[in-house]
Design brief:
The protein has 5 helices and 12 strands. It has 205 residues and is of the alpha+beta class. The model has no long low-confidence stretch (mean pLDDT 95).
């Protein structure tokens, strides 16, 4: 069964979908949510087509009577106060739909981000003690924060900060023009880290 899991919070819902070639239905993909990757039929990468179809199907599992669209490469729910974020890796898709600005990221838990550490870590981040899995979680959390704001002026290594107390993570954005914070959920799904925010608080300095 392609639908793997649905998790619910007070004001958000997260779903995970596993897709494969055998489930791809081009005609159905054309019909549902036609303004999400409307030119997908021209994509040369076949797995990208299957992925888009999986995203549309998972979206329909998570929410009724809403329309998924794409604007400037970013997914939105048309004429809705709901927010959405999408992530994928290999043949796994995950979506969060929430009542607040949200982000989600999924990564294989053996991914080594050490070579790009300088691009996202800063001195205010929690001390990962050179633990590669904690370093990867920091990367994922900053992806979530970046996606939740949808502003490409946000810099991972200077505006985004990750704190950890016991096993609880919290993310902060301290941009010259805005500031916000989010509680972060880090979960395991098979050999993946699935990371998303469970709230979004605007900070007024």
């Amino acid at each position: 069964m392609p639908l793997q899991k649905i998790s619910k919070g007070t004001n958000y819902k997260v779903g995970i979908w596993e897709f494969n070639q055998d489930e791809f239905n081009q005609n159905h993909c054309n019909i549902i949510h036609p303004n999400y990757h409307k030119d997908f039929i021209d994509y040369k990468n076949e797995s990208r087509k299957w992925q888009i179809y999986g995203i549309k199907l998972l979206f329909n599992e998570l929410i009724d009577n809403e329309i998924l669209i794409l604007k400037n490469g970013i997914p939105y729910i048309e004429k809705s106060n709901k927010e959405i974020s999408i992530t994928h890796t290999k043949n796994i898709i995950a979506i969060i739909i929430a009542d607040f600005p949200c982000g989600i990221d999924i990564e294989q838990n053996n991914r080594n981000t050490l070579k790009i550490k300088h691009k996202f870590k800063n001195k205010e981040d929690f001390n990962d003690r050179n633990d590669l899995k904690e370093l990867l979680k920091t990367w994922c959390i900053k992806e979530v924060l970046y996606k939740s704001k949808k502003d490409n002026s946000v810099l991972f290594n200077s505006h985004l900060i990750v704190k950890k107390k016991s096993d609880v993570y919290k993310g902060f954005c301290r941009h010259p023009n805005f500031s916000f914070s989010s509680n972060i959920k880090v979960t395991n799904f098979r050999n993946y880290f699935l990371v998303y925010n469970t709230n979004f608080t605007i900070n007024h300095d």
